[in-house]
Amino acid sequence: NSGQSVWVSNLYVEPDHRKQHVARDLIQYVKQIYPNSGVYWATYTQNASMFRFAEKIGAKYFERICMFGLS
Questions:
Q1: Which of 8, 9, 19, 47 could pair covalently with 41 via S-S, beta carbons 3.0-4.6 A apart?
Q2: How far apart are CA 9 and CA 49, in angstroms?
Q3: CB–CB of 23/38 below 8 Å?
Q4: pLDDT(71) > 60
Q5: What is the model's pTM?
Q6: Contact by Cβ (8 Å): 38, 5
Q7: Angle in degrees, CA 64, 54, 61, rounded to 5
Q8: Which are the contacts of 49, defined by CB distance < 8 A and separation ≥ 6?
Q9: What is the pLDDT of residues 8-59, one digit of tens each?
């Protein structure tokens, strides 16, 4: 597990379940499974609630990450 990165894809909590620590508990669970790995997720820059969540749990912001895709 050392040096690996774990990406959480599509981290979303239904509105009725927000403010119940669901996302925080999920991230902590992933960290327990992969204690020597970084846990990462991406969000839109307009997602203010995700930025507040990330700040609250002490996650670092990597502004140089860029994602591309085709649909």
A1: 8
A2: 17
A3: no
A4: yes
A5: 0.74
A6: yes
A7: 15
A8: 18
A9: 888 899 999 989 999 999 999 999 999 999 999 888 888 898 899 999 999 9
